[in-house]
Amino acid sequence: MAKVTGLEGVVAGETDIGLVDGEKGYLVYRGYWAKELAVSKSYEEVAYLLWNGHLPDAEELAQLKLEMAQQRAIPEYICRMLELIPATVPLMLVLQSTVAALGDAENSTWPPTLKQAVRLTSLLPAIIAYRYRTLQGLKPLESLPELGHAANYLYLLTGQLPEEAHVKALSAYLILCMEHGMNASTFAGRVVLSTESDISAAVAGAIGAMKGPLHGGAPFEVISMLEEIGTKDRAEPWLRGALDNGAKLMGFGHRIYKTKDPRAEALQIATLEMIGKDEAFDLALHVEATAIALLEEYKPGRRLFTNVEFYAAAILKALDLAPEIFTPTFTAGRIVGWTAHILEQSESNRIFRPQSTYTGPMPASETIS
To answer: What is the predicted pLDDT for the residue at 23?
Structure first.
């Protein structure tokens, strides 16, 4: 009898936060289509929705923006950690360590609080940018309170006030990263929290899961493909050569979605203002159109559409973000979903303790009477 692995198809809990239906191409956040939220709402508005269950009114939104702006300052001891951790340590491990270290007196309480969720979410982009600029030999920057969450992240990384089209594209990407059902990292966070550990420990556990290449690393391979193709005239011969050799085209098809990935649809709309303004982005769009046509030719009926990793790669490359901060940037979006699930887990908590089927040998006989 084959071993059952991965818990695939096993229902591990109930949630009001999000719905993923791959057959129908549905991604729902608290009763709203995620793809519509991504192109019509700000990062802060959707974060408020996932944390509170409803979209904010003007006063509630203003209060959240103010609170997030006030929570961006990195504690001095975390700054020292970011400077002292060896440069060879991957950024995701640095994030895991520093977030765990934020489990101070305020963040070690049970049950976790919304204030704690806001604090961690607000701090994460600042921590990423501080570490990145330090490794580049650049002076870390202080946040600008007048900038929104996505715009401030770009400013902290680059030192330049970002273009509105870039802010819109990054904000849409971060919104679509926020929540995706009981994925590996979300489940890891809920499992840690279910032991009545603190919110920092739970988020650190989720970051550990996100670090794995099967979960948070897909855009790297898309960008590698785009860089190998290089120019529009090379797209079709390169893609045909890959398909003739049985290679997988990165950024097309999805384990869950059997129709168009709704996140890719939203990013396509959110990036309209970037068309014709960035050579790398225009190349990606040409590769997408060529690949979809060729996939239908080579694999008719397989329903292999563009997935979110393709558009993520196109956006992150157009924003000129370094590859080493791709997965951390994904993490800066997903932390909203993680903390929403952590808060939900605490409301009716029961420790996760699944059973396993023993398949090893048994002792020959009992020797103790």
So the answer is: 83
200 part of a folded domain: yes
CATH code where residue 71 lies: 1.10.580.10
- Residue 314: phi, psi to the nearest 5? -60, -45
**Residue 309 catalytic?**
yes
Give the rounded percent of residues in the chain with a pLDDT score beyond 90.
70
The per-residue pLDDT for 369 is 59
Type of residue numbered 313: A
99 and 187 share one domain: yes
Shared-domain flag, residues 208 and 240: no
Please identify which of the residues 44, 45, 265, 309 carries the catalytic annotation: 309
Concerning whether 76 is annotated as a catalytic residue, the answer is no
Residues in the chain, overall count? 369
Q: Could you tell me if residue 368 is inside a domain?
A: no
Does any domain span residue 339? yes
Q: DSSP for 79-91?
A: HHHHHHS-TTS-H
Across 258-279, b (16+ Cβ under 10 Å) vs e yields bebbbbbbbbbebbeebeeebe
The whole-angstrom separation of Cα 272 and Cα 165 is: 9
Among 149, 166, 180, 254, the one annotated catalytic: 254
DSSP state of 27: E
Residues in the chain, pLDDT under 70: 1-4, 105-107, 217-218, 255, 368-369
In a domain, 125, yes or no: yes
Other residues' Cβ atoms within 10 Å of the Cβ of residue 97? 16
Tell me which amino acid residue 179 is: E
Domain housing 281 = 218-318
Domain count, the chain: 2
Q: What pTM was computed for the model?
A: 0.92
